[in-house]
Amino acid sequence: MSKDFGTVGVVGLGYIGLPTAAILADHGVQTFGVDVSPGTVEAVNRGEVPFVEPGLREVLKRAVEGGKLIASLNVPAADAYIIAVPTPFTSSRSADLSFIEAAARSIAPQLRGGELLILESTSPPGATDHMRDVVLAARPDLAEQDLLVAHCPERVLPGKIMDEMVTNDRIIGGVTSEAAVAARELYSTFCTGELLLTDAKTAEMAKLTENSFRDVNIAFANELSVICERIGVDVWELIELANHHPRVNILQPGPGVGGHCIAVDPWFIVDSAPEESNLIRTARETNDAKPDWVLGQILRAIDAGSAASVVALFGLSFKPNIDDLRESPALQIASRLADRRPNAELLAVEPHIEELPSSLSSCENVSLVRTEEALAAADILVLLVDHDVFKSLSRSQLTGKTIIDSRGIWR
Length: 411
Ligand code: SAJ
What we know:
Layout: E1 7-11, H1 17-26, E2 30-34, H2 38-45, H3 56-65, E3 69-72, E4 80-83, H4 98-107, E5 116-119, H5 127-138, E6 148-151, H6 161-167, E7 170-174, H7 177-187, E8 195-199, H8 200-231, H9 235-242, H10 265-272, H11 278-304, E9 310-314, H12 329-340, E10 345-349, H13 358-361, E11 366-368, H14 371-377, E12 380-383, H15 388-391, H16 395-398, E13 402-405
Helix pairs in contact: 1-3, 4-5, 8-10, 8-11, 10-11, 11-12
The protein binds ligand SAJ.
């Protein structure tokens, strides 16, 4: 079945929804962006991006100025909807579907039958069916066959979203095969990657599997780093050498795994089959333990130094060259350190933010400073995020300091 999607509503204008809406609009589709935050809606309608993502501003500006993207707080009528809202996890590490449910209920009153509903949010197996059920419960006048429902997980890498959203292959999981075909039609308006059709549950699992694969591999690298520290081997040299094997490709150790995807998604698999998910659970626990291991290194360095130690922490974001602090191991290390050593002066260097987040601004012994100030004042330098600007520091700027390098860039 070929469908014409003249109008598309994108519900949730965050890291995924906003680029999706901007790109759709830039490809000539009349797009309505919807968000619960008045600040976000106003910013988008001014053509402004409320977060850092290279290349998004230009596309958004073009889309808004051309009248192809209009943001609002309320869901308008449209031929298709893309739902890109958060799926955080609860304290018991199962998925919190309340944002998806709220989005479904907000769309329901606008439906006339025949619309395509695409869930893009990363979701546990069964969430797409659940979203359809929430819509149908709000609209008993509609039948299952009146709606085309699909799950098309986003797989873009923050920092490269504008490129990857267009060029990545996409998995399209239909609740019915008709829905999968209709969703393919919509994505083919802007996606040059391969569009791979399957059922909704397999698509849900595929996304979780990709991120769990990465998590397990990072856990392997993180475990190696702890082993190597114990036996006196340089883990980065070790990995570089091992990776010369044609079938070995080990990832990089670090201070832990952050962000809102890899540190969260594997738990959705564990939650769906707890008895069978031993490796995936252990990998999560290994990566979650890494910030405290780095913290231990810093505490030992402080205790071995003078009573008036000044510690500089380089990087707070969850990965290099972005401003995103969500689930950041660097931030965890900084706030636990501030708590454990209230008399140590802590200088945080994070060139991508203007002010400290609340978890650190409330600590009297932490301040946000520039690189030069930290280098001049600190005797212990801790590298937490491998931002490009930190890679380019010269070795002479580091001489005479105690160095703890969780990313292996100052070796
Ligand atoms: N990390 C390491 N060592 C590595 C690679 C990463 O410690 O060798 C750490 C990073 O520093 C960071 C965390 O892992 O703290 C996650 O970073 P990332 O760059 O691996 O991934 P995300 O969270 O930015 O994006 C991932 C991507 N998934 C995969 O690569 C399988 C992206 O394609 C997904 O779209 C995204 O999750 C998502 O939204 O699910």
